[in-house]
Amino acid sequence: MAWIAEDRRKAAEEAGKQYLTDAMKTLLRERYFPRYPTKRAAALPALHLVQHAYNWIPTGAIREIAEFLEVPEPEILDTATFYEEYWLKPKGKYLLSVCRSLSCEILGSEKLTEHLCRKLRIEPGETTPDGRFTLVELECLGSCGTAPVMLCNEVLHEDLTPEKLDALLASLPDDPADYHDPVVTWEKQEGH
C-alpha cells in the first residue's frame, strides 16, 4: 500500500461535506451494480464519478465510497493509489501530460518538459499556485508518428515545439469546459 501523508485539519474541515451524492449512488445502484457480481467491483466507477465531479478524489470521498460499497476504507485507498489516473490531491484546471516514450524522447519531449517547468515554475507532479496547470509525464500516448506529443486535459497535441506550447497555453480559455479538441468539434459540426 502506498503511504500517503494526510493533512488531518483539512480532513476534519471536509468531514461535513458529502462527496458521493445521492444521484451518484443511484447511478451506481442502477447502472453498475447489475453489471458486477459484488458491490466491491463498482469501486472504479465510483472513483471515476467522484473525480469527474470534483477534479480529484478527496479523503472524505474515499471514506464515503467504502461505506457505500460496504468494503474497508483501505481497500478503496489501495485502488485509488494503484491507478495513475486517480488524483488524491487537487490538480490544476488544465492537466498537461507530456509523453516520455522513446519516440517522443528522441524528438524532444524532455525539452518540452523543461520548457514547461521554466515557464510555469513547477516540476512534474506539481500544480501552479493559481491552480491553472498541473504538469505530469506519461509513458506513452500512442502517437509515435507525430512525436513529440502532449495531452492538455484530454486533447492530444502533436509535433510540439516550445513555441507551439507557448501558443497553446496562451490560447486556453479561463474555463476548461470551453476547451475542446478542434478536430472533434469540426466532426460534430460536419456530422461525421
Task: Sum up the structure in keywords.
4-stranded mixed sheet, 192 residues, 9 helices, single chain, alpha+beta, 45% helix, elongated, 9% strand
Architecture blueprint of SSEs:
Blueprint: H1 8-14, H2 22-32, H3 43-54, H4 59-69, H5 73-82, E1 94-99, H6 102-106, H7 109-120, E2 133-138, E3 150-152, E4 155-157, H8 162-171, H9 182-190
Parallel strand pairs: 1-2
Antiparallel strand pairs: 1-3, 3-4
Specify Rg, calculated over alpha carbons. 19 Å
Shape: elongated
Main β-sheet, spatial strand arrangement? 2-1-3-4
Count of helical segments? 9
Mean pLDDT: 88
Structural class: alpha+beta
Counting DSSP E segments of at least 2 residues, the number of strands comes to 4
Largest sheet: 4 strands, mixed
Low-pLDDT stretches are none
Termini Cα gap:
46 Å
What share of residues are in beta strands? 5-15%
**Helical proportion?**
40-55%
User: What is the H/E string?
Assistant: HHHHHEHHEEEHH
Written account of the structure:
This protein is of the alpha+beta class. 45% of the residues lie in helices and 9% in strands. It has nine helices and four strands, in the order αααααβααβββαα. Strand 3 and strand 4 form a beta hairpin. The protein starts with 7 loop residues before the first helix and ends with a helix. The mean pLDDT is 88.
Concise structural overview:
By secondary structure, this protein is an alpha+beta fold. Helices cover 45% and strands 9% of the residues. It has a four-stranded mixed beta sheet, covered by helices on one side.
